[in-house]
Every structure is written in C-alpha cells, then in structure tokens.
Amino acid sequence: MNTGALSLIDTALRAGVEVCFANPGTTEMPIVAELDRLPGMRVVLGLFEGVCTGAADGWARMTRHPAATLLHLGPGFANGIANLHNARRARSPVVNWIGDHPSRHLPFDAPLTSDIAALTGSVGWTRTVKSAKEMAEASLASVEAALGPPGRVASLIIPADCQWEPGPEPLSEKTSPALRETPTGATREAARLLRKGRAGILLGGNALTSRGLRAAARVAVATGCGVWVETFPSRQECGRHLPRFPALPYFPEQARETLAKVTSLVLAGAREPVAFFAYPDQPSQLAPDGATLYSLADPDKGVDAEVALEALAEELDAPAAATPPRNMPAFVPSGQPLDPDNLGRALAAVTPENAIVVNEATTTGFMWNAVHASNAAPHTMFFSTGGAIGQGLPNALGAALACPDRRVIAFQADGSGLYTVQALWSMARENADVTVVVCANRRYRILQVELARAGIAHPGPKAQALTDLTRPVIDWAALAKGFGVPACSVRTDGELADALIRAFAERGPSLIEALLD
Question: Which residue in 51, 61, 351, 487 is deepest, having the highest Cβ count within 10 Å?
C-alpha cells in the first residue's frame, strides 16, 4: 500500500530530487519509515537544521537541481531559516518537507504548535498539504516551484496524518528549469548604452561561468567599459585561465567611488547594487545619481545571463579577448607567521585543479578574492551571498556530496564556523572530501572594523568583549577530532602548505586550524 509519505518521496525522486538532508522528529516518522523503501533517495543526517538547509543550498549551487530537507515542525524549520535566507538570495532550488501535527491535534495548542506557514512564507513558496490524496501532486508542485526559474526555496507543510494515511500513485514527470534568452531589442539597447562611453557592466548569476566571463571580456575590449562582479555572488568560476574582473567593494563609500564616473550600468545577472548596510550620511544605492541602470539579463525573470553576454558580444562585433597569462611563481615558504596575504598565497599555490572553494573567511576572504583566487588553478568559488553567517561548512558538505570527484575547500572564518560546527560530524559520517581551513584570528574581526568605521577608535571593555573569541580560546583542532575529523594547527605559511598537500592526498575530511597574527 502506498502511504502519503511514500507518494511524496517517490514523486520527488522521479522529479530529480536525489538527496534529503534530514533532522526529523516525531511528526516526520512516517516519512522516515518510507525512506527505506526507496533506495534511490540518499539520506544525510545533520545534527542541526542549519546544517541541513546549508547543505541543501550547497548541493543546489553545484547541480542546479534541488535537494530536500526534512525538518521538525516550526521550531526545526526556524533553526534552519538563516541558511534558507542565503539560499533564497542565491536563487538556489531547495525543497523543504516540514512535518506538522494532524489537524485534529492543532486545536489543543500542543507545546510544539506554531504558525509554520508564517515562517516558511518569509523565505519563499509555501503550501500546506490538506489531504494524503494530494501528496503526489503537492510534491511535484514543490519541485517545480523550487526549480523556477529562478531557483527558489519551496516548502511543504505536511500534517502527520497526511503522511501515514493511504496516498495516491506517485507522479513521474521530470522537471527541469528552462532559462529564457534576452530579446534582441534588449541586446541592442545594452550595446547602445555601452557604446556611449562612461559605461560599465555588473556581473552576477550565471554570467560568472567561464563562458560568461569570456564574453564579458570581449564586450570590454569592444567598448572600453568597466566590468565588475557582484560583491557576494552565489557561484563564480575562478583561476588564472579566466579574465579577471574586480568585485564591487563591500563598503559603500568605496563602491560609490568605483562607480563614480559611470553614466550607464548594464546589469547582467546582477541585482541593482545597494549597500549591504546603511551608514550615516551614506546613500543606500551605489550607482551614481542620475546613472542609467539597464537590466540585460534579469535572473529573477529567468533570463540567461551567460547567453545574453555572448549575444551582446556578437551585437558589438567584439573581437576575441586574450586572457593575459598569469603564471604563478613557485611558492617558496617564508617561514613567517600567517597573515591574510601569505595564507592566501600558500592556498593559491596548492589548490587542486577543479576544486570547489567555499569562501566564508570574511576579512581574510576579502584578500583571497581580491588577489589570490585569480592566480590559483581553475576552481569554482561560493560566497556568502545572503550574508547570514554559518553557511560555509554546510555548503561545503552539500557541494562535496554533489560532486564527489572534486576536492572541496571550506575556507572558513572561526567566528562564523561556530554557528554550524556540527557539519563536521556529517562530513566524517559521509566521508566527504572536504578540507576545512579555519582562519583563526580569534575575534570577530569584521565587527572590530565596523566599530572603527563608527568612530570608536578605543572600544570600552564591553564592546571589546563582544568582538573577542578568547577567554577561553577555542581549540578548533580538538573540536574537529571530537566530531571524527582529523585535524592539526599551523602557524606559518610553510606549515600550512605542507598540511594542505597532505590533506589533498587523502580521501575524506580534514581540518587545518590556521592561527593568524
């Protein structure tokens, strides 16, 4: 007999959902029981819901297909909502299965009763299943909603009785996203604006593939326009084989200065640039007053930015753009204590070709992105697109399971890593090929920068305490070993390079605590 739970899972599996990152509870036990009947659905246990949702985002960023999460009622979903915010901002397709009490139990206001729909609606598409008879159709609808385009978070709220009661036959429709091409008129208008001079292009979304970056370089050669990358795109191809474009600066006054002479800004897969935060006497919008903003490829409308840039290059009759050779000099360890620069040089020197680098290193990560990533071997990089910290380790887990033939490097700040440190246990359990590099400066360095920007040159003891991660010092190597992940600590660039080479030579996860001055 088919149950509603079986209809849900089997339909999702047939629609292309291959993995479920789960932290279930009592109201999800019928789904848990039915997972054994479907060997094609991989199940990964996360010790915290934020690990599950971040891992689903990492899987989706690499495959462009949704992973499922299985979460327990409203509080379980709420524990995972920060990384669903990041997934929403990254336009990642994610399907959430959230159990709820049977309708007959809801009037009694049991301890875990909450308004789940209010929570799920804050991050994307949501639907409450009303009957076991609709489970297959609802499952397919959630996958289609997640795929879009654009990709998005789709949540199904599933009462327990809808899971255990008899359900319909699974549906077997295969769904896939279909991006639209930019209309010819839009390409011509973008070309006209760029030919006028004092123009630029801001790249985001799938404009940051190898094809998109090469097309943008051709456009720059043809028009002399500036080209920038969104500050925190969801995914970007990087390395010395590709054209190098600077990221739009994080701080608004620097971004405004960068764009100050631009009178026309073409958005290719990017949103309008706005400041991450508001500051006194600083505008929210980063483009100059009066500048024309023109969307060549709006990903929220499912327009393919990669194809749009190639069409724009053809419209401009743009010549081929050569990528200047960037032959990285042989890495010679200095033996000096680690700082953001020599840490980045060491990592760039030994990063394996085709690696996936998940960059949540915050202040140290700025140096990597601005200087060193373009000198490394070809690799794919993730960024903290939504700004909610704690995505790095779960993203790395999901990416490693999605691409088991590629080495994943979790380039991780120590402060944000502690939000979802439980991901280390799942990496060990799944034997995921993730090398974690923890940039351990033992402080919330970005908050210290923000205090200085606020004019507080000498913070008082309370302000200092809120940015300090000592008293006691956090021992990352001991934490990792406690979760089953081999680990070591290093203090110099040579020690780091040696530790990385050893880690890359072995299958499975490892952690390197890079102690920064």
Answer: 51
- What are 82-94's pLDDT values in tens digits? 999 999 999 999 9
How far does Cα 237 stand from its chain's mean position?
14
Residue 320 and residue 340 in contact, taking contact as beta carbons nearer than 8 Å: no
Cβ contact 67:101 at 8 Å: no
Give 186's DSSP letter: H
pLDDT given for residue 327 in this prediction = 67
Cα dihedral: 85, 87, 91, 94 (round 10): -120
- Spatial distance between the Cα atoms of 360 and 417, rounded to a whole number of angstroms: 8
pLDDT in tens, 216-240: 999 999 999 999 999 999 999 999 9
CA dihedral 383, 385, 387, 389 (to 10 degrees): -50
* Whole-angstrom distance, CA of residue 307 vs CA of residue 285: 28
* Structural contact between residues 347 and 375, judged by C-beta atoms closer than 8 angstroms: no
- Sorted by where each starts, the structural domains of the chain and their CATH numbers stand as 4-164 (3.40.50.970), 184-315 (3.40.50.1220), 340-515 (3.40.50.970)
How far, in Å, CA of 460 to CA of 448, rounded? 12
Question: Which 8-state DSSP code applies to residue 367?
Answer: H
CA distances 255 to 73, 95, 259, 454, Å, are 42, 35, 6, 18
Q: For residue 399, what are the contacts with CB-CB under 8 A and spacing of at least 6?
A: 58, 59, 61, 62, 356, 358, 382, 406, 408
The counts of H helices and E strands in the chain are 21, 17
Which residue in 202, 247, 242, 250 sits closest to 225, CA to CA?
202
Kindly report the backbone phi and psi dihedral angles of residue 410, in degrees, each rounded to the nearest multiple of 5, phi listed first: -90, 100
Peptide bond before 333: cis, by omega within 30 degrees of 0?
A: no
Query: Using CB atoms within 10 A of its CB, is residue 505 exposed (0-12), middle (13-18) or buried (19+)?
Result: exposed
Instruction: List the 355-360 sheet strands across, edge first.
Output: 235-238, 379-382, 355-360, 408-413, 434-440, 510-515, 487-490
Q: Is 328's pLDDT higher than 70?
A: no
Residue type, 52: C
Kind of pairing between the strands at 264-268 and 292-297? parallel
pTM reported for the whole predicted model: 0.96
What are the strands of the beta sheet with 94-100, ordered from one edge?
42-45, 19-23, 67-72, 94-100, 153-159, 124-128
pLDDT at 177 > cutoff 80: no
Rg (C-alpha) for the chain, rounded Å, is: 24
Looking at this protein, which amino acid is placed at residue 325? Answer: P
Q: Which two tokens stand for residue 160?
A: 């327990």
- Angle between helices 81-89 and 49-63 in degrees, nearest 10: 20
CB atoms near residue 465 (< 10 Å): 11
**Integer Cα distance of 142 and 96 in angstroms:** 9
Total residues belonging to the chain: 517
